[in-house]
Amino acid sequence: MSTALLAGEPLVAVRNLHVDFSSATGVTQAVRGVSFAIGREKLGIVGESGSGKSVTGRALMGLLPGSARVRADVLRFGTTDILHASEREMRGLRGGRIGLILQDPKYSLNPVVTAGAQIAEALRAHSRLGRREARDAAMALLESVQIRDPRRVHDAYPHELSGGMGQRVMIAMMLAPNPELLIADEPTSALDASVQAEILRLIEELVDSRGMALMLISHDLPLVSRFCDRVAVMYAGQVMEELPAADLHRATHAYTRGLLECLPSLSEKRERLATLRRDPAWLAPRS
Amino acid sequence: MIDIRDLDVRFAANHVLRGVSFRVAPGETFGLVGESGSGKSTVLRAVAGLVTEWTGRIAVDGKPLGGKRDRAFYRLVQMVFQDPYGSLHPRQTVDRILSEPLAVHGFTDADARIPRALEEVALPRAARFRYPHQLSGGQRQRVAIARALIADPRVLLLDEPTSALDVSVQAEVLNLLADLRAARGLTCILVSHNLAVVAHLCGRLAVMQGGRIVEELDEASLRAGRAAHPHTRDLIRLSRDLEEA
C-alpha cells in the first residue's frame, strides 16, 4: 500500500496534463497542459462545454475511454502515480479514496436497485461489513445527508425519489468509504435553483466537517466562486487563470471577464448583453 | 393578444394547473417563473395545443381556442423549446427543417425565405445544407428560432430557450431574441427558472408554485425585490445570493 504523504505536500498534484482523443477524423486535444494542486480545500474548475474540465476530472480517476491518450509530467493522488497504477490500485481509488458525483442522479443511480441497497453495496465494496452492518451504516449515511425520512428513502427505488433526493443518495453512496477527495461534476445542473443551493451547502458542510478535498466542476462561474476557495478557469483545454474565489471580481484574464460580463443581472438592468469576443490568442499554448 | 382565464389541467390524479389566469398585451413579453413541477411549461404547452385536455379559456388574438388547433393557429403562434438537440430532426438538413413549415403553410418562395431566415438569426449561408449534429448548441438554437419565425408568426412561446446553452451563447441568443422581437413586434411568453433572464427580456411576469400563479409583478418590482409572496421573495433571494458572490 501507499506510504504517507510528506507534510506540506498537496493531496492531488497535476502537472502538464495532456489528454488527446484520436478518431477517424483526426486527433482532438481535449486537455493541453493543465497543472494544479489540491490540498484539503475546495477547488472549482469552471469552463464552457468542450473546455476540457470534465475530462480533467476523469483523467484523475482513470475513467477515460481507451481512445484517450493521457500524458502528464505528474498525475498523482496521495502517493499513487495514476499514470502507472495497476487496475487494482485504481479500483481502490475510484469510489474508495475518490468519490465522484455526476450531474443527473436519474442516470447515475441503478434504476432497479433500491437506494439503500446501492449505498450498502458501495460500503461492502470497500470494507468488510456484514449485510446487517452495511444496512445500518447506509441508514446512518442517509441521515448524514439530511434526509428527514431515511427509512422511506432506504427502501425507495430511484424513480420514486425527486432529483434533489436522488442527488443526496448519490452523495451518501460516495461518502460511504470515507473518501479523501470528492469530485463533483456539475452536481446541481439538473436541479432547481433552491434545491441546487441546498445540495451545494450540504456538500460544503460534509467536505468541511470530514476534512475532505473538493473538486467542483461546473459551467457556472458565480456558483462555483460562492462555494469554493479557489477557481481555475479553463478554455480550450488550458487553464486561463487561477485565482482565489473571493477575488473573482478582480479577475484579469479577458476570458474570465467576458464570462462574467455576458450574464444577465437581476439587480441591474443591462440594455444589451455583452457578448464574448473569443481572442484567437487564448488558444496559443501557455507555458 | 393572449388571454388565459381559469386554466385547469389534470393528468390522471395529478392536478397540474389550478385556475391560472393572465393576459399578455400585443408586443409584450410576459415571463413565467417557478421551479420544476410548478406548471409553468404546462401553461405554454396548453396554449400551443400540445396539452389537449384542459378546461377554462385560452384566447389568442381575440379568438377562443378549442382542444384542437387549425393550421391558421400555427401561422400565428410558434414555439421554441429548451433543448435544441431534441427539437431538431437529426436526419434532416437545416434546409429541410426550414422548408417544412413553409410547405405546411403553402409558401412557394422557400428559396428566397430560407437564406433570409438564416441571415436574420445570424447563421452563415453554409449552414443551410448542414445536419443538426454538424452545428454547435447555439447554432442549433438559432435554427430552432429561424424555424419558428419563418412563417411570420405574431406570437412566440419560449420554453427555457437558453438553459441548455453556455452563458456566452446564452447572451448571444438573448440579444437575438430581443432584436427579433423589436423588429417584428412579436408578443412572447417566456418560461424560465432564471430570474435574471426573465428580468432581462420581460416587462411583466408571474410566479408559479404548485400549479397556481402566486404573484404577478413587473420588472422594476422584481429588480427592486418588491415582492409580496414568500415564494417570490425566496426565489429573488436565491438569485441575488449567487449574483453577489
Structure overview:
- The complex is a heterodimer of chains A (287) and B (245).
- Chain A has helices at 53-61, 87-93, 105-108, 115-126, 131-144, 150-154, 163-175, 193-210, 221-227, 254-261, and strands spanning 12-23, 26-38, 42-46, 68-71, 74-77, 80-81, 98-101, 181-185, 213-218, 230-235, 238-244.
- Chain A has 287 residues and is of the alpha/beta class.
- In chain A, the strands form 2 sheets. A 6-stranded mixed beta sheet of chain A has the order 7-8-9-3-10-11, with helices on both faces. In chain A, strands 1, 2, 4, 5 and 6 form a 5-stranded antiparallel beta sheet that branches.
- In chain A, a hairpin with a 2-residue loop joins strand 1 (12-23) and strand 2.
- With 245 residues, chain B is an alpha/beta fold.
- Chain B has 3 domains: 1-27 and 36-68, Rossmann fold (3-Layer(aba) Sandwich), CATH 3.40.50; 70-184, P-loop containing nucleotide triphosphate hydrolases (Rossmann fold); 203-245, no CATH class.
- In chain B, the strands form 2 sheets. Chain B has a 6-stranded mixed beta sheet, with helices on both faces. Chain B has a 4-stranded antiparallel beta sheet with strand order 2-1-4-5, covered by helices on one side.
- In chain B, a hairpin with a 2-residue loop joins strand 4 (54-60) and strand 5.
- The radius of gyration of chain B is 18 Å and the shape is globular.
- The termini of chain B are far apart.
- The interface between A and B is medium-sized, with 33 and 33 residues.
